[in-house]
Design goal:
2 domains, alpha/beta, binds zinc ion, Aminopeptidase
Length: 399
């Protein structure tokens, strides 16, 4: 048996126990015009830094009497888990954002009682209250942190409208997470046609993580046009702070691998790994005991390790990513704007699903090795495997 390698919950966070779901709304009144920005902290209850940053920025907006154009709404994700300092209580709150689940919640005959369902209903209501109205643009900034240390980074679905918001924050951008994990708040928002950016601000308990989140929120408020840079004290220093936190790291990294922890297995990440740390193929990264004895977990490829799990909860052991050269991003942007949208459907072994708009079924026996890469370039993402076929869906761009 291996130990879980983590200390138990850091305990309840006294100052975060009795907070309302809505941390603030600026301006308090005003019609729906321009950009609506939701900033959410504490989707994972052991990640308090985002909540602290939202409270700090909102207090500053008030103290300085800044006039906000549009609307910014600060929200707590999983308030019950946050009060306990636990990642989640019954279910990971950041795996529940699928249309099927949300429909089932609203159709439930019995009143739901499990903590994460209650949290989800409350958060959905908070979103809906503000989404009513004719907004030109809706943006989500989802503030997270990791159990491992290392530089902050953003995560997006690679839509053309998400890119500029992610690149407005001078830290690496991680692509492809939505192909490995289902039901994140981030993907749900992006699939609704909104802009959605997640910031992993650093290690869960570090004060610098609050600083990174604070800087990212100010930068996003300015980039989205809600505030003017000259109204934010020390704006240049805020930007420099984020920039310095991620020096010498690639601008864009694509996820290539997720190590999923088998149900019931004991997992222990070897100590000392940080986000973006380079690893070699075959390097021992962790130990696992599925019940039949401890064995090593080796890296199946060379690249950079991301989000190694040093906490007790969650079934993602670690991820591996590789740098993407800016040329490929430029090319995929160009292809998506070009009149070549028909091209993926013309590839051998690729068929559109007549019943599901924007979805392609790729026959693994006929498709060539480059088909997946080409589909990525055209803005499709891997969705599921169906026998020998693989289903791809087109990421939604602007509504
Ligand atoms: Zn998180």
């Amino acid at each position: 048996m291996v130990a879980t390698g983590v200390s138990p919950s850091t305990g309840a966070l006294a100052d975060l126990q009795c907070l309302p779901r809505v941390l603030g709304v600026h301006p308090a009144r005003g019609e729906a015009r321009g950009t609506l920005l939701f900033v959410v902290g504490g989707v994972h209850g052991n990640e308090p830094a985002g909540v602290r940053a939202i409270r700090r920025v909102f207090a500053e907006i008030e103290r300085l009497g800044l006039s906000v154009q549009g609307r910014v709404v600060g929200l707590i994700g999983n308030a019950r888990a946050l009060a306990q300092g636990q990642r989640y209580l019954a279910e990971d709150f950041n795996r529940l954002w699928t249309d099927e689940r949300i429909e089932a919640l609203s159709d439930a005959a019995e009143p739901v009682r499990d903590p994460e369902s209650l949290e989800q209903i409350a958060l959905l209501e908070a979103f809906q209250e503000h989404l009513a109205g004719k907004w030109e643009r809706v943006v989500l900034l989802d503030l997270h942190s990791t159990s491992a240390g290392g530089a902050p980074f953003t995560i997006i679905s690679d839509t053309l409208q998400n890119r500029p918001f992610a690149f407005a924050l001078p830290v690496p951008v991680l692509l492809g997470l939505e192909e490995r994990i289902e039901g994140t708040l981030l993907s749900w928002f992006a699939d609704l046609g909104h802009v959605a950016v997640c910031l992993e601000g650093g290690q869960n308990e570090l004060p610098s993580t609050v600083e990174h989140h604070t800087a990212a929120l100010w930068l996003t408020l300015v980039f989205a046009g809600l505030l003017r840079a000259e109204d934010v004290p020390g704006f240049g220093a805020l930007r420099a702070r984020l920039e310095n936190s991620a020096r010498n790291l690639p601008a864009v990294v694509e996820l290539r691998y997720r190590y999923g922890i088998p149900a019931g297995a004991q997992f222990e990440m070897n100590p000392g790994f940080q986000n973006f740390q380079p690893v070699r193929r075959g390097e021992v990264l962790a130990r696992i005991d599925p019940g039949s004895g401890v064995r090593d977990v080796q890296s199946p490829l060379g690249g950079r390790v991301l989000m190694p799990r040093y906490q007790a909860l969650g079934d993602d052991g670690f991820f591996l990513g590789r740098e993407v050269r800016p040329f490929w991003l430029w090319l995929s942007g160009w292809l998506r704007r070009s009149g070549l949208a028909w091209l993926p459907r013309a590839l051998p072994g690729v068929h559109s699903d007549p019943d599901r708009h924007g979805e392609l079924v790729v026959d693994g026996r006929i498709a060539r090795w480059f088909t997946v890469e080409l589909l990525h370039l055209f803005g499709y993402r891997w969705r599921s495997r169906e026998g020998r076929s693989v289903r791809f869906v087109r990421r939604r761009d602007a509504r």
